[in-house]
Structure formats: structure tokens, C-alpha cells
Amino acid sequence: MKNTKENTDLNMGRAKNDRWKKILGIILNIALLLLIDGLLVYTFINEENRIYKGTIIKILLIVTGNILFLVLLFWGEKICSAIKNTTFLRIADVILLLVTPGIVFMLVQMVTWVSGYKNKAVSTFKGLVKMSLLMEQPYLRLNLIIYAIFFIILIILFRKINIASSALCYLFIILAMVNYYVMEFRGEPFQLLDIVGMGTAAEVVGEYSFKIKLMLGIPLIYALVFGEFVLKFQKLELGKKSRKNTAARFGVLAVIVITLCFTIRPILQKLDAVTLWQINRIYKEQGYISSLVKEIRYFYIEQPEGYSVGKTVELAQEIEDGENIVSETDKSESEESVDNTAADTSETVTPKNIILIMNESLTDFENVGEIKSNVEILPYIRSLNKNVKHGQLHVPTFGAGTARSEYEALTGNSMSFLPSGSVPYQLYVRDPEYGLADILKSQGYYTIAMHPNKAHNWNRASVYPCMGFDEFISLENWGEEHRELLRNYVSDKATFEKIISLYEEKDADEKLFTFCVTMQNHGGYTVEDRAGFEPTVKLGYDTEYPLAETYLSLARESDSAFKELLEYFEKVDEPTMIVMFGDHWPKIEEEFMAKLLGGNRQSLGLVESQQSYTTPYVIWTNYPSETVEEDFSANYLGSYMLQLAGLEMPGYNQFLMNLKEQLPIIGVGAVCDKDGNWYANDALPDDYKKLMTDYNILEYNNQFEKKDVIESLFTIGN
Fold it and tell me: CA gyration radius for the chain?
């Protein structure tokens, strides 16, 4: 009797727990459905707001999906019980098991097609389904195999097929949504290497608006329907629950994981490499998941063709002998140039203060195309015509990825030889990290890095000491002064006042190098993000562009603040060089940018798209210097500053200055020579291919060589 009572109590306890689990599950599912529906309604009211045939069809599909989901949630178990143990259900279980990877693949591809640039082919639901499935057979098979592998792993992990099926669906839909929102926030797709930047991304994610368009709502709602359907109707299990079963499953899982770890690299090397330029198009046409898996290969930095320590030493000797770079046809011209350079160097003024400013999202859209605005955007910067070098700087990133442009400017290394989407600050920086700060420090400059935001952003707190900065001033130790906010960020005006205060606090005989990363113009630019800031720039287009108006107004504030900074140092007796450049374009309305570019950025060709990787740069001195207008890429900026300042340069920087004469622009997926001719990286003439290979070899030794770094190439005094 006692055992019977205990068993009864135990069963009642289990039933109670099951009931609470069921209630909790219903609450969570309803909350998720309401979240998606709420965002759909919010987006429709605020953005689309038009009713036509296509819109009605989308709404009907979403409403139908809601009804199906609620029916499955509340009555799915009863329906399943009614057909329990029937032949139909057993056959359906097997069919459902086999088709699950394919269904998840289709749902993920539907989300992927909605992400990014607009395409008329996916403007209707029928077109969306068609384009999601319209894929070349080899890519289709590869994607299905990858989904099947993940499905098998989840089955082994969870034992119950319904849980594994639901988990497969939700996990990959979430991954597809990551790509969607990354595209929305920065205009560039998610790449696997972005994972290491998630910490910094999480810091700013709240500054953007999460919206769900109707077309996106369809695969999301039906992903919920499918997930709930398999939970209720899929009854297959991988054996009975027992300790022996668990041990066997996890043993097999361990074997699979270990096998994949040892075989993934050679397998990936046999597959076609994914092209990282316009990667979002590759996600659509070749499959999101297979393309992501292929990106794993970019976590490995391969030695460049022909690399060896001996080859690096050989190149170092050529640089020292002045033989590197110059071709036979250019020798006479180069020798004349060297003579002129020597003559100019004798009159070069070496600045006592060097200020380098990387201005967040600063872009000269007026250089791209005509802007219909009530005022000029960068009137002061565009008016500078005395003691100034200026032009367009080609940067390696768009819409975000600030630290990539920063890395090129400070080290001289090019992102062209590193995986697209990677952030060296978080993956590759070593101690010491040779570059501009180290070179200036070795020549007597006190080196300060400053950034009016959190020190750990892009791992700067760890990176800057390795680079040779004596001090790092971040928001945490900024002080109470010079904290004026524009929206939610320290303004450029306040930041530049901080630069002035650092100059005023230094000793009279001290040489100072200040590197500053601003924050004022950081995205988002929505009305909600303005925090009381009223745009002064008004655009005169038929369509309203509130994001563009906010951004352009902020850029105009930067221009004004820069004017005040230069006006202060005009009166300073100590020779001072001030350099400012933008890190990347802002992420604003695609339609506005398309008007300037002459077409949607995602649809532009390799050469035409390069303009969207340009930002303005200014190199100004408060002493007489030649005024020059030229365009070049960010990897040359630090070396160019050293050359203009008449300072000693290591061999690597000398190499870069020689390379700049031949290939002034190393762009994204392409290079431009001194005559203005563009070449795709995989179609370089032999001469240029050799130059880029030499550059790659030197950069590899600098950044990745484990034992025999030729330090004398990269630093002064070794």
C-alpha cells in the first residue's frame, strides 16, 4: 500500500510538472508569435503603408500561418492522438524525417533572399519561393548534405526526432536572421569571421531599429508552424531512453565531431572557394549555409605563394639597395623623382605635434554626386587649399568595421591579404605590433590613443599597448570635461577640445603623437536615435530620407568642429601636422545612396562599387607645405605621414611608398595603377602581380611569422 501511494504521488508530481512545462511552452510560443506579429504591424504602419494585391496576399499568408500555428499549439496533440498508431502516421513520420533538411533549407533561403538588395524576382511570394529553390544542382546538393549532417548531429544529441527537427529549424532561421539584420544595420552581410566581433556589435545593437517586413514575416511565421508541427506529429525516436543509449549516442557524437575537426580543412580546400566580394549575392545563389561553412577556410591564414624567411630577407636587401619596385621602363623617371625628393627633403619641416584623427563615418557625398540640399555639407574641408594634402582615401570596409580601416592606417598592412570580414584587432594582432605608433615612439614622440567610448570596443584596450601607445584615453578615463553629447555620443567639438587640452598639458620640449577615433557620427540615424538633435540639412527630393538628413547634419557638425581645431593650431608656434580621414560610409537609405552612385550598390560592378569604399582625407600643416590633391588607399596613410614629416622610415614603409607610386589604390577585390587603370585581384598583369606578391610576403612576415620576423624591416633601431 505504501509503495502504491508513493507511486501515485510520484505520477501526480510528474503530471503536475508536465502541465507546468506545457503552460510555460504555450506562453513562450505565444510571446514569440506576438513579437513577430508586433514587429510586422509596426513595420507596415511606419514604412510600407500601401495596400495592393501583392500586399493582401502576403497578409493572408501571414494570417493563415498564425491560425495554423495556434491550431497546432492548442489542439495539435488532440489531432495527433486521434490518428495515433495508424499506418498513415508511421509513414508520415518517415517522410517527415527525410524532408526536414529540405524544408529548413527552403525557409532559410527565403529569409536570405529577403536580406539586402531589392530584386524584382522576389517581390511576390511565388517569386520568393522560386528564387529560393532555383539553384544549380551542385550547390543544392552541397547545402542539403550540410543540413543533413547537422540534423544527424542534433538527432544524436537529443534522441527525439521531433526536438531535433524543431531545433534544426529554429537554429538556422536565427542564423539567417542574423544575416538579415547585419545587412540592415551596416549594409554588408554577415560573415563567419564576424563572430569574433560580436562583443563590440552587442554594444551598439540597441542603437538600431528592429523591423520585420511582410515578405520576411512569411518564412518566419511558417518556420514557427513547421517547428510546432514536428513537435506534435513527429514521433520517431533514436532508441529508448537509457544510460546505455545515452553513452552510445554521445560516443558516436564524439567520433563525428573529432572526425570533422580533422577533415574539415582538407574538405574545404577541395571545394570551390567562396568569393567574399558581394558575398550576399553568393548566399542567395549558392546557399547561405554552404557559403558560411566554406568561410571556415578563412580562419586559417595560408602562407603566400613563394613565401619563406629567405625570400623576405631577399626583399629586405632589395629595399635597402633601392632596387625594389622600380621596373626597367620606370628607372629613369624614378631616379629623377628620387633626386627631387632629396631636394624637397632638405626643406622638410618635422612637426613637433602630429595629430591623426579617424572620424567615424565621415564621407564626402558631394564628391560622389550632386546632393539636393539646402546647405553645403562639408564647406570648410572642401575649401582647404593651402598647406594641405587632400583627396579620397580608399578604405577596406563599408557601413561598419571601423577597426579594419584603423588597422590599415596604423600598420601599413592591407586587408586585401586577410579574410574579408575579419577584424585583425581581434584575431591577428601580436606583441609587438609594428606600425606608426612604434615608429614615432622610437623617434622621441609621446604616443597617445584616444576614443570617447568604451576601451574594450574592437579590443583596443589590448591592442594599443602592443602597438606602442604610451597612453590610452577612453570614455572610462576621459574626465568630466569635454563630454558634450550630440545625440548619445561625445561630440567632435568636445573631442577636438580634448585634443587641444592634451597639447596644452604637455611639456614645452615634448614631441606628441595623438591618435583619435571619434564617435559623433556613429549609426543609427533614425528619428528615435536623434535624442533631441535636430537636423540642419534638409534634402529636396520627392522621397524623404530622414536617415540621410540626420547623418549629413552630423557630418556638417564635424566639418565645423574641424575648422575650430585648425583655427586653434594656426596660432600655435610649434610645427603641427593634423590628419583626418573617415573610416567608412554610413549605413543610410539605399535609395539615397543609389541616386549618388547611379545605381544600387549591390548591383554595381567590381570597379564601379569602389567609390562606396572612399572617404575624404586631409593632411594639414600650420607651416608652409605643398598643396596636393591625390587619391590612395588607407594602407599608405601612415607611411605617407612619415614621409611628409621627414622622419626616418623602416624598410617596410619605404617599400609601401615605392608601391604607392605604382599602385596608389589597393581597393576591395581590385587595385588601381598610377594611370587610373583598375584590375581585379585575380586578373593582375604580371608586373603588378609580382608587386602584390612581394607586399603579401612582407606583410605575412610582419604579422604571422612565428619565429623569424625580420624586425629591422618594420621598426627603427633593430
Answer: 29
